[in-house]
Amino acid sequence: MKYGNVSKTARFLIDRHLKQLEYTKNLNDECPNFPYLIHIEPTNICNLRCIHCIQNTMKRKRGMMDFKLFKKIVNEISQYSCALTLDMQGEPLLHKQILDFVKYSKEKDLFTSIITNATMLTKEVSKKLIELELDRIMFSFDSLDKSIYEEIRVRSNFENTLKNIINFLEFNVEAGFPVYTCFGMVIEEKNRDKIDDDIKLLYNMPLNEVFAFPMLNMLGDCECLEDNSVYNLMNNTEKENWPVCRVPWDHMAINWNGDVLACPVDFEGRFVIGNIEKETLHEIWNGSKMKVHRNALLNKDYSEIEKKGNLCKHCTCMWNEEYDIRDYSKFMTSFFIREISQLGPKIGKVGNSKKEINIKIKYLNTIKEKLEKKEPL
Q: Quick check: 306 and 270 in contact, CB under 8 A?
């Protein structure tokens, strides 16, 4: 999204949503509207082994995206005003050229987001990301209780990682809030009882938003999902009434090696719809493989796309109330509000007055003191 001009971007968002709304009235396997979000995987290597993740079981070859390949992707999508997010199956900050990725994307006037576990978020990296005017950063951090956090985020260090995040928030305040800042928390058995209290505490920080996500079952490959309500819904719903996941009509995902996927949750690349080295994203978007994927969802017959393993048939993601594209009119407004809130000065829930912001900065200092003393938050 070209966020250099707020009014221009707002017009783009309105136009895209209205066109998609009209299109969904006659939903089919060819989508005339280019995706508004491209997921790019700088690497599928991660330094942590979170208990809700597939890093321990993923068999796909590990690697780092070549910067030339990244530039090829950005050069094409910059024509379409869509956004890109650096995420998927690895830790983006492990890529030695990640700052070059952000710099190039911003030079092309693209809305650029990163999802990070923040373990590699040094002061130098934080300052550079803010200087480059990264649009949005999400910190994956599941608990403000040290023992719970480290049980979930295996191999991480609670104090060091939270200090990294606090440093970023302080630098962002000093720079005038150029970066929209978020916490992302996965709701699971270990943190469920404390997550509401944690969210209240987090909003004492100069943050824009805190998300608490229901745990995904990663296409059925994650065995740690303890909430059976979605499975009960799946088992008690006639197949013809199953939702039609909106992702292949709104998103595309690109693995580090250039393989293109209809869904960023396809962590093994079980149904590759193309490769950016051989085709353009525009060609892939309505290519034969993408149409096969969309028809699998439309017809509730997933056999053609699941020849190499579980995909949509076993996924809990599409049962989220905002993921059925047939109900696009119901959640379009909330989509638009979330997107438009990230334009312009990134104030939002950070605070609307100097007094309020100063209170939140003092709270950061209190947290830092407790971390130094290794006291509970």
A: yes
